[in-house]
Design a protein that fits this description.
Blueprint (H helix, E strand, L loop, with lengths): L1 H29 L4 H16 L3 H30 L6 H25 L2 H41 L8
Helix pairs in contact: 2-3, 3-4
């Protein structure tokens, strides 16, 4: 009976550790859409949220398609560089961030021309809230990483103090 309980406990612990890894792999697989699919989903979400008419929805679709094409191109270039073992210089990092911000400004200007004043204000509020939530989420993630790193460094400094029984 004790062996059975022990085996069940081990099986449960094993399944709990495998589950997060599978979730990450599934998330990677889910996000591999082409630019048309991504642009369609983004434009339909905006159409639902901002109550866009057909002309606005078509213009937003074209803008989103252009943006996703550019992002995917940049992403593949970056992945190829990383696979080749190349590291980014400070100038390259600056250029990437500068280009990203320029693209955001262009997108904002284009949307300002496509959307009505009320729609644009609503879009800006939603965009700001998403950015804020992303920063909070990244902060939590970085906090957990830092806490883990501190714990590991403490073990390195005092190897005998953290012995497990």
């Amino acid at each position: 009976m004790k062996k059975l309980v022990g085996l069940v406990t081990i099986a449960i612990l094993f399944s709990l550790t495998v589950s997060p890894q599978q979730n990450r792999e599934n998330a990677r697989k889910r996000t591999q859409m082409n630019s048309e699919q991504s642009a369609t989903l983004q434009s339909k979400k905006m159409a639902l949220h901002l109550d866009l008419d057909k002309n606005q929805q078509a213009a937003v679709y074209e803008l989103m398609k252009k943006n996703t094409d550019e992002r995917q191109l940049k992403r593949t270039e970056f992945r190829e560089k990383r696979q080749n073992g190349d590291t980014l210089t400070n100038d390259e990092r600056f250029q990437i961030q500068n280009d990203r911000l320029d693209n955001q400004l262009e997108e904002k200007a284009a949307l300002k021309n496509i959307l009505s004043k009320q729609q644009f204000e609503k879009w800006e509020k939603v965009k700001m809230a998403k950015n804020r939530n992303a920063k909070i989420k990244m902060g939590r993630s970085n906090y957990k990483k830092q806490k883990h790193n501190d714990r590991e460094m403490s073990r390195d400094r005092h190897p005998g103090a953290h012995r497990e029984n």
